[in-house]
Structure formats: structure tokens, C-alpha cells
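Record 1 of the preview.
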Amino acid sequence: MKRLFLAVCALCMLGANAQDADKSLVMASTTSTEQSGLFAHLLPAFKRASGIEVRVVALGTGQALDMGRRGDADIVFVHDPAAEEKFVAEGHGLARRAVMYNDFVLIGPQGNPAGLQGRDAAAALAKLASSPGIFVSRGDKSGTHAAEMRLWKAAGIEAPADKSARRAMDYRECGCGMGPALNMAAGVDGHLLSDRGTWLAFKNRAKLAVLLEGDPRLLNPYGVIVVSAARHPHVKAALAQQFSDWLVSPAGQASVAAYKIAGEQLFFPNANKP
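->
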């Protein structure tokens, strides 16, 4: 009888553990949201509200969407609207929902040796291409990398990694996240494009500073997409939907707005907006 009682207890414990495991989901997201410290602020608030644990895999946006395509994530939270809409159109996820935005900033040496002026990011890159110095690119198919490539194209340079497309600049692709790219630029007094959130959270600035900001093309919107259970039946779509719903709810949007560093807000909620 005692053995039977112990066996029943063990089964109950296994069932409880299985239920606990079911209360977690995997989110593929960007290095900028992770390294800015946003998730350390946001996810505990969601867990308190729902009991659901969100496990983050921080990658470039392209890699995060690839995780969703394989069904290796339950939800994606990224910042490349064109790539996100393509992901949805291909049937890999449900509708994209806007969550928040911040902006990109052009970082470089404090002395501004290239003499960048104004707010035109494409004109600034065109000037950098013919100036001696180093430009550090994420080179990782992330949302930041995609934004950088759009700006180079606007500057009339289709492939900045091709030496024939530039006259003086040393262009270096690190194939890394935003934090390591910033560290690399700090080590060589280089230029790079960064999201403002990671820049504000970055401690190893050395002699780097914001040289250009305010161009409307530097807007950086983030969206969330639940991975399709029709395409990948094993994904935890119900839990992912709860997280998506919370992010765009008044409570989730207030939590996004409340995240600040040294009194400066890093992300701005914009749920239900394109």
C-alpha cells in the first residue's frame, strides 16, 4: 500500500512538472531588445501577470525569423517590418502586431573627424565612404543590418563591402550582435549604426558619441508575431498568444514605456499602429 501511495505521489509530481513546463514558451528575438536590458524589465512583469515564463533566444532578426520558420520558437519579436510581413505572407506566423519603436543613431569618434553634419543619414554614409576611417557593420542579417543596407543603397552604394564601391573607408563586418559590434567600434574608434536602446545601455563607449540622429529613415519599429500552429502543430500558440495580447494591452504598453536608463526612455509603445 505504501508503495502504491509513493507511486501515485511520484505521478502527481511528474504531472505538476509537466504543467509547469507547459507554462513556458520560447521567443526568438533580437540582440538589441536583449542587450538593452528591456527583457530583464519586461518579462518578469508578464510572468507576474500570467505565470508564464518566456525563454529568450537573442539573435539577429533574420536568424530569429528563421527559427520561427523551422518551428523552433513559439513567437518572434523583431524589428524589420518588410521581413516580418514576408514571414506572415509565407504562412509561418499570424498577423504582425506593432508593439513599440525607438530609433537608430549613427555612432562615431567624438571628434567627428569626417565632419558629418545635419540629419541626412544617407548623405552621412556617402561622406563616410570617401573618408579615411573604419565603419563597423553588424553583417548578420539583423534588423539593424537591414536598416544599414537600406541607408547605403540610399547613399548610392549597393554593396559597401565591395572595395570598388568606396574610395577610402575601411568597412568591417563582424557578423555579431549589437553589443559586440559596439565593443568593436569602441576598440578601433570606428563608425557604426546602432539602435538607441542598446547604445544607451552600452557601458564601454570609450571615445564614441552620437554623431547623427533625427532622420525619419532612422525610425526603428518592433513587431511581435505568433508562430503558426497550422504550420508547426507543436508550438505553444495559446501561450504565445497570451504574451502577444499582453504586450499590446495597456499593462504591457505601460511596462514598455516604464523602462528607462538614467531617466531616459528607451522604447516607445505604439500598439495597434502600423
